[in-house]
Amino acid sequence: MYKLTLISLIFFLTTSSSYAYLGPGVGGGVIAATIGVIVAIIAALFGLIWFPIKKLLKKRKEEKKSTTKKVD
Q: Is the pTM of this model over 0.70?
């Protein structure tokens, strides 16, 4: 186990040039994907929070209407 850890450490700490070119399209794609993930998380949280609150408010409003009709 010690040898595997040492070899992995040496492997990850050594650097070498890759001689690769990543064009501007890759950067735009990464930015678009990141924004997409963030928007999806926000939309999911919005759905989990807003719609139950909306249902509760509607239920409360209907109960209020029914109680006022009974009094009249």
A: no
